[in-house]
Amino acid sequence: MLYSLTRAALFKLDPEVAHDLTLKSLSKLGPGAALLGAGETRNETRRVMGIDFPNPVGLAAGLDKNGEYIDALAALGFGFIEIGTVTPRPQPGNPKPRMFRLVGHEALVNRLGFNNDGVEKLLANVERASFRGVLGINIGKNFDTPIEKAAGDYLACLDAVYAKASYVTVNISSPNTKNLRDLQSGEKLEELLSAVMARRKSLAQKHGKEKPIAVKVAPDLEDAQVDAIAAIAIKHGVDALIATNTTVSREGVESDPRAAETGGLSGRPLMARSTAVLSKFSRALGGAVPLIGVGGITTGADAHAKIAAGASLVQVYTGFIYRGPHLISEARRALRT
Question: How far apart are CA 24 and CA 68, in angstroms?
Answer without folding.
Answer: 9
